[in-house]
Write a structure and sequence with these properties.
By secondary structure, the protein is mainly β. Helices cover 10% and strands 31% of the residues. It is built from four helices and 15 strands. Strands 1, 2, 3, 4, 11, 12, 13, 14 and 15 form a nine-stranded mixed sheet that branches. A two-stranded antiparallel ribbon has the order 5-10. It has a two-stranded antiparallel sheet with strand order 6-9. A hairpin with a 4-residue loop joins β14 and β15. The N terminus is likely disordered.
Length: 399
């Protein structure tokens, strides 16, 4: 029996995830910015489960110091050549007016009837009987900056040692000198690789080199309380037939031996330890919608397509400076400056892409039942938004 076995070291791997760096901005006449939601942190359903069902490295103070890797952990490693790349000013773009023509009354009328028909509690009478008084086209632009970055972190990792080759001789290359193929641009991706010449064999810290760990179900005794009689030894006036009156039965987890195969070393008693390089590629997005106080809820535009007026892609883009709407130029300058300040010292900026979209929005004024009302037709899909539809049933009015 391995009654004396105890784990004298505890070690849990850090699971690092870059916080979502996406930001969404609404630029109105007051230039108000609204940050987007952050990514939720991951969690395991079973707190006792071993992440990825693999080995964990021994505590850092038991590991050798590898030159160039003295500070391992979750903090990103600054690239060796940060700040060297600078965007080049583009040649002057020919001036062009981007005015949005208002949709026709026929199209606005058709879209409104379709909208009313899609609502179970809306009467179709306002949509069919209304009289147009004005259609106003609203110049609405969406600016987007995407910055595709690569960041690197290092930490000790391990796997059960089964006699495989130990790459522990030679000088370990610096983290940013290790070549790693770049995945598809502007798509998030994470990859982990083993740093050459950092491998070493260590005794398993979880089981003290024994290959087996104490069974947590029976607490190393090999026996558990009888599930049939609840440990009483009797069921009613009769002796329990399952445990024969002892109140204890053989532990099903360990087969009655009191110990189980070590989950860290898989019963080998040794670990092949090495430094793991984790590479994270992330597409960081900055979005600004320029709205001139139209009263339209711009959050509805998140799933709406517009007409692309400009697409610029380069390792480092230069802010847009010659767009007819100065608010777009200001949004581009702010976005480029913010992303460069945020990422240039901690990540490698691989590629940037900025786009400007024109989103058609028409504000429709109409009269029905001697009252004036407003609705919006927006996007190339000609969707409709109406804050106060004039003829709803009672249940919709209460809601």
């Amino acid at each position: 029996m391995l009654a004396y076995m105890q784990n004298i070291y505890s070690f849990s791997k850090f699971h690092n995830s870059l916080a979502r760096m996406d930001r969404t901005h609404l630029l109105s006449d007051q230039d108000e910015a609204h940050p987007g939601p952050s990514c939720p942190a991951g969690s395991y359903a079973d707190p006792n489960a071993v992440p990825n069902d693999g080995a964990t490295a021994p505590p850092a103070d038991l590991m050798p110091v590898v030159p160039g890797y003295e500070s391992l952990g979750p903090n990103v490693i600054p690239p060796s050549n940060f700040g060297s790349a600078q965007p080049e000013a583009p040649s002057r773009v020919p001036e062009r007016r981007f005015d949005i023509p208002a949709i026709t009354e026929e199209l606005a009328h058709e879209a409104f009837i379709k909208y009313a028909s899609s609502k179970c509690c809306y009467s179709s009478k306002p949509a069919k009987e209304m009289v147009f008084t004005d259609l106003q086209s609203l110049n609405t632009y969406r600016y987007r900056l995407e910055t595709f970055t690569e960041s690197r972190t290092t930490e000790w990792d391990s796997e059960p040692y089964n006699g495989q080759v130990v790459d522990g001789f030679g000088v370990a290359p610096a983290p940013w000198s290790i070549p790693v193929p770049i995945p598809s641009l502007f798509q998030d991706c994470v990859k982990s690789i083993r740093v050459p010449h950092t491998s070493t064999v260590k005794g398993c810290h979880s089981c003290l080199n024994l290959g087996r760990s104490a069974c947590s179900r029976c607490v190393n005794s090999g026996r558990t309380r009888c599930s049939h009689c609840g440990g009483m030894g009797r069921t009613g006036s009769n002796r329990c037939s399952l445990c024969q009156g002892s109140g204890m039965t053989r532990c099903h987890s360990c087969g009655g031996v009191g110990s189980i195969k070590c989950k860290t070393c898989k019963g080998q008693g040794k670990l092949l330890c090495f430094i793991k390089l984790k590479i994270t590629w992330k597409n960081n997005v900055y979005v600004a919608v320029i709205d001139k106080g139209s009263g339209f809820p711009v959050e509805l535009l998140d799933q709406i397509t517009g007409e692309k007026l400009l697409t610029d892609m380069a390792p480092m883009v230069y802010p847009v400076v010659s767009f007819p709407d100065s608010s777009v130029n200001a949004a581009s300058e702010s976005a480029v400056r913010e992303h460069q300040a945020q990422f240039v010292t901690t990540c490698r900026i691989l590629q940037q892409r900025q786009t400007i979209e024109l989103i058609p929005i028409t504000r429709v004024h109409y009269v029905w039942n001697q009252k004036t009302h407003i609705y919006f037709v927006y996007g190339t899909e000609h969707k409709v938004y109406s804050k106060d539809y004039p003829a709803k049933c009672c249940c919709c009015s209460i809601l």
